[in-house]
Please model this.
Amino acid sequence: MNLKEELYRQCLNYVQTRMDAAQQGINEAQQASKDDTKSSAGDKYETGRAMMQQETDRNMAQLNEANKLKVALNTINPTAKHTVIETGSVVKTNNGNFYIAISAGTFTVDNENYFAISPASPVGIKLKGLKAGDEFNVNGKGYKIINVL
Model:
């Protein structure tokens, strides 16, 4: 598996983990709601149900966000070759490596760290359209692009 395919796979795993956690939270809140029986303390029962509904809503929002990330990943061809930076590019610079896909934190491949960033992030926007040899600045820090994959 090449570098881009491995980074893509790690991003998919990241999204799937988020989706699984959100779905589990939804299932647990729904189960707790079913298990909660109406007691003589009606206000306590209603408060508990409202809190469980809020928890379900929060997890649904997280699931929707994870779905958006998955949709964004589905637009990427991990085997495509790039000379100009675009979504799906791996960018090696003198001050760090980037994978332009989704905002998913740092991944390590072959003992090298890669920051998975969104093309809409400040760094992603600066990188778009650049190529090996170009330079850019982010927060006063200079970067020189060594390689684009």
About this structure: The chain has two domains: 3-74, 90-148.
